[in-house]
Design brief:
The chain contains eleven helices and eleven strands. The protein is of the alpha/beta class. The N and C termini lie far apart (about 60 Å).
Length: about 325
């Protein structure tokens, strides 16, 4: 049976472009004749019944804003069978027939469990790390990369002025996509990612010494969060090369800011597609990008997917950043 009342929530880490997806869900739902509820603070809000009916104007002037207008939170209680059943009971109490969940893999597992408890769910991938294996792209990734590039470009000014080496940590615990593409964009001497083991002497010191011989005097090393230890790396580089080295952790600044065009458009497309699926009575699906097209997969299939690291792009970066 197709949904009559749907809800939308954001879960896990916030990502620029989530608001575009929320806006699309609300407006596509209402124009399709559905009642749309907004749930505040993710699954926590679903457990407590913190939901309100949304209208066309509820999502005015949010498409250009970072973060999520519905707020987000992590919910240990929801990760239990009892918590899932409580959330399903609350959906019944509020008259919610289906839920659009915007978030990462953990959020999708929750959507799968909630579907199993009788509440149809559709997942939309929103995470700046681009670490959803089933999708080539996740909402927030492009904005985070552009933010990192802007910050590192500014850092380069002082790095070059003092003939220093800057060791910069960008986000990405399990996935090095953000580090890899940002590193290429800023011309980093070395890019360290969790997917590829590195040799300190060969991959950092020897590359720096080689480029010194060709006239290079300042250096940028990009390190994914999952590799870490940027302070120690900077200290070791300085002790071995004599080049003043500083560590910089960009941190949560990468999550914020106005979303790029790509994140606004992809978020809007995915939000629309999610409503279409619920309107057709479909559930337990996740919206993904495959071969540059937006499609949907079974959530269980999506969670089992393994996406290989783009080693060819990594090799290109190694060849040209010297």
């Amino acid at each position: 049976m197709s949904a009559r009342t749907i809800a939308v929530l954001t879960s896990g880490g916030d990502a620029p472009g989530m608001n575009a997806a929320i806006r699309a869900v609300v407006r596509a739902g209402i124009t399709s004749g559905l009642r749309v509820m907004g749930v505040r603070r993710g699954y926590n809000g679903l457990l407590s019944g913190d939901a309100f009916e949304m209208n066309l104007r509820s999502v005015s002037d949010i498409i250009h804003r970072g973060g999520t207008a519905l707020y987000t939170a992590r919910s240990p209680e929801f990760n239990t069978p009892e918590g899932v059943q409580r959330a399903a009971d609350m959906c019944h109490k509020l008259g919610i027939d289906g839920v659009v969940v915007i978030g990462g893999d953990g959020s999708f597992r929750g959507a799968r469990d909630l579907t199993g408890a009788g509440i149809p769910c559709i997942g939309i991938p929103g995470t700046i790390d681009n670490d959803i294996a089933s999708s080539e792209y996740t909402i927030g990734f492009d904005t985070a990369m552009n933010t990192a590039v802007q910050m590192i470009d500014r850092l380069r000014d002082t790095t070059e002025s003092h003939d220093r080496c800057s060791v910069v940590e960008v986000m990405g615990r399990r996935c090095g996509d953000l580090a890899l593409q940002t590193g290429i964009a800023v011309g980093a001497t070395t890019i360290l990612v969790p997917e590829v083991p590195f040799d300190f002497q060969k991959d950092i010191i020897e590359r720096m010494r080689f480029t010194q011989k060709t006239g290079k005097k300042h250096f940028i090393i990009i390190v994914a969060e999952g590799v870490g230890h940027v302070t120690e790396l900077a200290e070791d580089i300085e002790s071995q090369t004599g080049i003043e080295s500083r560590a910089t952790v960009l941190g949560h600044v990468q999550r914020g800011g106005s979303p790029t065009l790509r994140d606004r458009v992809v978020g809007s497309e995915m939000g629309y597609h999610a409503v279409e699926l619920l309107s057709q009575g479909k559930s337990n699906r996740v919206i993904v990008v495959r071969n540059s097209k937006i499609i949907d997969l079974d959530i269980t299939e999506a969670l089992q997917a393994v996406r290989p690291f783009n080693i060819e792009l990594y090799r290109i970066a190694h060849k040209i950043s010297i």
